[in-house]
Amino acid sequence: MQIDRPGLIVADRWQDYQLLDCGDGMKEEKWSAYTLVRPDPQIIWPRRTSSPWRDWDGFYHRNESGGGKWEFRGKLPEQWTITYGALKFRIHPTSFKHTGLFPEQAVNWDWFSQKIKSARAADREVSVLNLFGYTGAATVAAAHAGASVCHVDAAKGMVKWCRENAALSGLGAASIRYIVDDCLKFVRREIKRGRRYDAVIMDPPTYGHGTGETWKLEDHLWKLLRETKEVLSDRLLFFLINVYTARLSASVVLNLLDSLLHESGGRIRGGELGLPIRNDGKILPCGIYGRWEPV
Asked: Are 106 and 287 contacting, i.e. CB atoms less than 8 angstroms apart?
């Protein structure tokens, strides 16, 4: 097994999104025509200016209990569309500060899309399992590249959002299975059904609630990985894990992938995902990734 130790990759090919400024626990982002300011726990450095945030359409105010709420002004719509190449996604500021899209993941979309396109050019069918699929950006990217995708998330609203994103990107009739289920329970049923997948995308939360069960990353991720191994095809194309908890390093994800796929050979690479900050040239770290691919 070849292991490339942690490195930083930056999502710097966006045309419809910009990270404008960061500091004092907040970030200012341009999402198409609209500017949002919201908190980010990684931003512990100060802003270069002491002036208040001014030209925003939406501002998320954090409260002392850890929650918060949006303040909107102007003519900010309830939702709008953002594009990345041929892909389109619905943006909607949610009550828990998210927008429905993690723009740093674009570097992963580009990576696995190229692998899928190369396989399809060689007349190979590619089936992708996307666990904790959220609003389906990765699902849409994989389907656009030519894969059939099984999108799994325990939240019915997120799966519905994925279907809407697929339709926006002209993929309403694409080969996508939309599954509302606990990821571990679903994988166990797929094992019994004998179904196999050529690639896996996994974006597990730190904490979560599935269909009647509580998810805790440190306690349950390895169990899920072991079960997921049983649904891998003999021609595995890639295995991607994204993790957002600050308690784990990229090396932990690399070690997990090595433990899971060591006998398969191949190459593992991992590190941080980042977004460039337009105002001062810094990079905002946005989680960690681990990738396995054949050599």
From this structure: no
Segment 7-17, tens digit of pLDDT: 899 999 999 99
- Measured CA distances, 247 to 111, 244, 250 (Å): 26, 9, 10
Q: Which residues of 76-86 are buried (b: 16+ CB within 10 A; e: fewer)?
A: beeeeebebbe
Distances (CA, A) of 220 to 154, 201, 216, 226, 252: 15, 17, 6, 10, 14
End-to-end CA distance of the chain: 9
Q: Please name the residue that has the structure tokens 């325990």.
A: 154
Q: What are the φ/ψ torsions at residue 111 (nearest 5 degrees)?
A: -65, -55
Residue 114 has pLDDT above 70, yes or no: yes
Number of helices (H), then strands (E), in the chain: 6, 17
CA pair distance 138, 158, nearest whole angstrom = 13
Q: How far is the C-alpha of 126 from the C-alpha of 150, rounded, in Å?
A: 11
Integer Cα distance of 128 and 202 in angstroms: 11
> What distances in angstroms separate CA 184 from CA 73, 133, 149, 213, 227, one per listed residue?
42, 13, 17, 10, 8
Using alpha carbons, list the distances in angstroms from residue 97 to 26, 39, 203. 12, 8, 18
Q: Are 137 and 45 in contact (CB under 8 A)?
A: no
Return the closest-CA partner of residue 109 out of 193, 201, 195, 178: 201
pLDDT in tens, 171-205: 999 999 999 999 999 999 999 999 999 999 999 98
